[in-house]
Amino acid sequence: MSDDEIILSDLSDDELVLQMHDDLYDGLREEIEEGVNILIERGWAPYDALTKALVAGMTIVGADFRDGILFVPEVLLAANAMKGGMAILKPLLIATGAPRMGKMVIGTVKGDIHDIGKNLVGMMMEGAGFEVRDLGINNSVDAYLEALEAETPDILGMSALLTTTMPYMKVVIDTLKEKGMRDDYIVMVGGAPLNEEFAKAIGADAYCRDAAVAVETAKSLVSRKHNQARA
Amino acid sequence: MTDALTKLLNSRDWLLADGATGTNLFNMGLESGEPPEFWNVDKPDNIRKLYKGAVDAGSDIFLTNSFGGNASRLKLHQAQGRVMELNRVAAEIAREVADTAGRPVVVAGSMGPTGEIFEPMGTLTHAAAVEMFHEQAEGLKAGGADVLWVETISAPEEYRAAAEAAKLAGMPWCGTMSFDTAGRTMMGTTSAAMVELVNKLDYPPLAFGANCGVGASDLMRTMLGFAAQGSERPLIAKGNAGIPKYHDGHIHYDGTPELMAEYAVLARDAGVKIIGGCCGTMPEHLKAMRAALESRPKGPRPTLEQISETLGGFSSASDGTGDTSDAPKRERRGGRRG
């Protein structure tokens, strides 16, 4: 271990990207903002800065959260650092017409006022480059439908912490089916009392045990959906 | 003057706490999304029935219906101005039930988490958390609670804030955390770390432990984790009656009264003094637990193997305590800053 001060701008591109992965891991927001600015000054495409430095770094954070090496406080700090970098990249990504990762509408179901897990999923999804529209807590079928129509997302995410509110997810999915909208969206569900079996029983596409699993699932289901659309 | 809980702890080998609050109230018709604390004022007979259910089943300690009775939780229902009232009434009804039980029964004033995240990750400050808990504690005290009962905490900062609030209110307290993430709390606290946290408090709880989480076997692993630290302070175990399962639109907990009786005996044999249930634990579970504690002789401290054989497997391979030399970790680049 060296205590030498690291000067980001002295590092080669490869070294800088690795250092940014470490800095994301440590939740160093200012250092991430500086790193993003350096990459852009060096002529990096905003999309490359996003995927190779930020998203790749958050993937490591997500894997270690999934494996019980990192816990919620560290993940929140990393997501906060990621947000700093994203704020710089967002206008540049729009200006350069970079490909989108995908979009998600997420909310806690009606009757349920718990939001820590849902917030965590939202932050990790943003950290992975997804656009997220958070509907907050206590959402009725109508609130979900309205948001789906307004946002046309790839993914609908529903969260519940109570055994008494989780059956409401089925109400939402059944309404989507009735309206012939079910296949327009990937439906992912999560929350402490849920499990794989429940998700299958109510007709969701996936149960996500935690925020890291949600991100991995979203990535693979969205790319599958895009491939099908192209075929 | 010695408080009621200390007196009871000094006179008995184990105490039976209560079971579920939410599960019981939902069975009485509480709607999802409706704050249970409103019922203290709107449907006091149901709350009396909830309390009596635990006392009649043999509980020596029961918790008031005030889990979400802090300003931050009540604000979700625009009731942040009713903290004092709702908590006071929760404790008053409890006092009445305890005083007519015909034996010593302790009223424990339930205080759940604020639901907010502390600085710097979130916005909650230590001072604001202390203020919220203190306000709730004063309400419970005014209604006649014997002891404050802080539960389902995941952040060490929040546990410390609750301790400070109990001190300000001049009330004895107990505090349990919820170990639901690979054997740790959501915020990463291990059972060993909780013992250290408790030992460092300048106003420590009368008893500490774990509640809720992921079923009885995980909870028992946490108890062994506490015991391994050699703490002299009484331990509390309040585990869920199994794991919620979904059947034809209904949810039920898969832990039978027989299973919870086994859990109670294992907890006592592990050195736990205060034994109760949490979500899904109904009066019939409590009765079975009491009968088993009274009839079965004390055995040696159970091993992890005995626990998983009797109660089912654990949710994760490790709980982050003991030998962690082979635990996965992230190799880092050299050079660090600030």
Fold and architecture overview:
The complex is a heterodimer of chains A (231) and B (338). By secondary structure, chain A is of the alpha/beta class. Chain A has 2 domains: 89 residues, Orthogonal Bundle (Methyltransferase, Methionine Synthase (B12-binding Domains), Chain A, domain 1), CATH 1.10.1240; 128 residues, Rossmann fold (3-Layer(aba) Sandwich). In chain A, α7 links the parallel β3 and β4. The mean pLDDT of chain A is 91. Chain B is built from 13 helices and 10 strands. Chain B has a single domain, classed as Alpha-Beta Barrel (TIM Barrel), CATH 3.20.20. In chain B, α6 crosses α7 and α7 packs across α8. In chain B, a hairpin with a 2-residue loop joins β8 and β9. In chain B, the strands form 2 sheets. In chain B, strands 1-10-7-6-5-4-3-2 form an 8-stranded parallel β-sheet. Chain B is globular. The model of chain B has no long low-confidence stretch (mean pLDDT 92). Chain B is an alpha/beta fold and 338 residues long. At the A-B interface, α1, α4 and α8 of A face loops of B.
Largest interface: A-B, 47 and 38 residues
Order of helices and strands of chain B: HEHHHEHHEHEHEHEHEEEHEHH
Quickly count the helices of chain A: 9
Low-confidence stretches of chain A: none
> What amount of the residues of chain A lies in strands?
5-15%
- Please give the number of β-strands of chain B: 10
Fraction of residues in β-strands of chain B: 5-15%
Helical content of chain B, roughly? 40-55%
CATH topology of the largest domain in chain A: Rossmann fold
Looking at how many chains there are and whether they match, the oligomeric state comes to heterodimer
Whole-number average pLDDT of chain A?
Answer: 91
CATH architecture assignment name of chain B: Alpha-Beta Barrel
